[in-house]
Design goal:
The complex is a heterodimer. Chain A is about 40% helix and about 25% strand. Chain A is an alpha/beta fold. Chain A has one domain: Rossmann fold. In chain A, the strands form two sheets. Chain A has a six-stranded mixed beta sheet with strand order 6-7-8-3-9-10, sandwiched between helices. A four-stranded antiparallel beta sheet of chain A has the order 2-1-4-5, with helices on one face. The radius of gyration of chain A is 18 Å and the shape is globular. Chain B is mainly alpha-helical. Chain B has eight helices and no strands. Classes of the chains: A alpha/beta, B mainly alpha. Chains A and B meet through helix 2 and helix 3 of A and helix 5 and helix 6 of B. Chain A: InterPro entries: AAA+_ATPase, ABC_ATPase_HisP-typ, ABC_transporter-like_ATP-bd, ABC_transporter-like_CS, MetN_ABC_transporter-like, P-loop_NTPase. Chain A: One of its GO terms (molecular function) is ATP binding. Chain A: This is Amino acid ABC transporter ATP-binding protein (PAAT family). Chain A: Belongs to the ABC transporter superfamily. Chain A: Pfam families: ABC_tran.
Chain lengths: ~250, ~230
């Protein structure tokens, strides 16, 4: 079934062993939109992202990237090139420099020549403010810097959208700001983003739409201002108030 | 002075034996790599059946003393109609045992690179094989160098057991010379010195290689790779 959305998820189910972690998730993402998924730990938020690029294949349901149904498409490697992924644990290649981490996907997957790849890598490093760290290895970078390289690596592949899987959850509080700033800029530049995070300030101020999930279901989705101030469900209110109390309203 | 002359007289024979020792070491290590790598892959990426088979092999190869293995190949197999020339018999015995140990080194190195590196590579659209060659292998090789250097030195020294099935390597050349000169102390010490020099060269060479390709954060010096 064709769709005019950039990404469309229909009735997504996922089970680990006997435990059903996703119980029928449906939502869509348009070009240029940023949607943020929030919810308690273990509700299947990250599983959705992993299902989309089939690092963990979904149990049931359909996912469309533009007109292509990607849940069963054979050419998964071509689909993955079009969808960026930013990992909670950064996922940087330890034997490559910051620049090398960005170049490897371009040269080995996209078959770009080395010089072009290098130019693009430097451009993307500059975009995340790390031009002068091009020659540093991951072990020589701070957590925030590593994650910014991770974002630059995803960007360089020129994806149609980027999935962020709790990008700041393994960072010290003082390092989350630099990563969120980069993400905020991307959203403003019109990048399509699907973000799983616990950063309520970011969710409230950057998201076009907020999706609140619990126990494998979407409880409520809509304008973040509405969910924060006047949600339809009592549970949404409890959760968002609790997190806002814990982390404050803004990330700065 | 007599002793020095004796050593000088013995040296050409001992060096001839040394050459055979080096050949034994080279071929045994090569078998160790050629057999050991697929075993490691089978253990990390293989199915249950494959894993079961290699576990049995590994248990056997690590439990039977090398000397017993060499005697079995050289004196046991001919009874079954399989006669292998002694040099090859020695290489097969030493090599197959080394394969069991080397497979453990490679398996550990591959596993310590960690699944998240594979996952990140796949997320960029790399196929499994590409991800292995460009992401996993370069890190695993660096992690494996120090234990491979150690294993190489062990194999080098254990080639002396080939003496028992008649291979004329360093030790047996020495025996011949002792038989005619009756100077076991001097000759054995000279042989020991040659082994010492050879193992030093092997270890030194591999640690140069290690230094040349050293990357911050990978290998023993940088700590466990997953810590970063």
């Amino acid at each position: 079934m064709p769709t005019k959305h950039l990404l469309k998820i229909e009735d997504l189910h996922h089970s680990f062993e006997n435990e059903e972690v996703l119980k029928g998730i449906s939502f869509s993402l348009d070009k240029g939109e940023t949607k943020v998924i929030v919810g308690p730990s273990g509700t299947g938020k990250s599983t959705i992202l992993n299902n989309i690029i089939r690092l963990v294949p979904p149990t049931r349901g359909k996912i469309y990237l533009e007109d292509t149904e990607i849940t069963s498409a054979k050419k998964i490697n071509e689909i993955r090139q079009q969808i960026g992924f930013v990992f909670q644990d950064f996922g940087l290649f330890n034997h490559l420099t910051a620049k090398g981490n960005i170049m490897i996907g371009l040269t080995k997957v996209k078959k770009m020549n080395k010089k072009e790849a290098e130019e693009l890598a430097m451009l993307e490093l500059d975009r995340v403010g790390l031009k002068e760290y091009a020659a540093s290895y991951p072990s020589q970078l701070s957590g925030g810097q590593k994650q910014r390289v991770g974002i630059a690596r995803a960007l360089a592949m020129q994806p149609k959208l980027i999935l962020f899987d709790e990008p700041t959850s393994s960072l010290d509080p003082e390092l989350t700001g630099e990563v969120l700033k980069v993400m905020r800029n991307l959203a403003e530049e019109g990048m399509t983003m699907l973000v799983v995070t616990h950063e309520m300030g970011f969710a409230r101020s950057v998201a076009d739409e907020l999706i609140f999930m619990e126990a494998g279901n979407i409880v409520e989705q809509g304008n973040p201002e509405k969910l924060f101030t006047d949600p339809d469900h009592q549970r949404t209110k409890e959760f968002l108030f609790q997190l806002t109390d814990l982390y404050g309203e803004g990330e700065n | 002075m007599d002793k020095l002359e004796l050593i000088i007289d013995a040296l050409p024979y001992l060096l001839e034996g040394t050459l055979v020792t080096i050949q034994l070491t080279f071929w045994s290590l090569l078998i160790g790599i050629v057999v050991g790598l697929p075993i490691a892959f089978a253990q990390v990426y293989g199915n249950k059946v494959l894993q079961g088979i290699v576990v049995v092999y590994e248990r056997l190869a690590r439990s039977i003393p090398l000397l017993v293995m060499l005697l079995l190949i050289n004196y046991g197999l001919p009874r079954l109609g399989l006669r292998i020339p002694i040099f090859r018999a020695a290489v097969i015995g030493i090599g197959l045992r080394s394969a069991a140990y080397q497979s453990q080194i490679y398996r550990g190195a591959i596993q310590s690179v960690g699944g998240s590196q594979m996952k990140a590579a796949r997320s960029l659209g790399m196929g499994k094989l590409k991800a292995f060659f460009y992401i996993i292998a370069p890190q695993a090789i660096r992690i494996a160098i120090p234990p491979v250097a150690n294993e190489s030195a062990i194999v080098l020294k254990d080639t002396s057991l080939a003496f028992t099935i008649g291979v004329v390597e360093l030790l047996r050349q020495g025996e011949y010379f002792i038989a005619t000169s009756n100077e076991p102390m001097v000759i054995y010490l000279t042989i020991a010195a040659i082994y010492f020099i050879l193992t030093t060269i092997v270890n030194g060479g591999l640690s140069l290689f290690e230094k040349k390709y050293q990357i911050p954060g990978i290998g023993i010096e940088g700590g466990h790779s997953d810590a970063y």
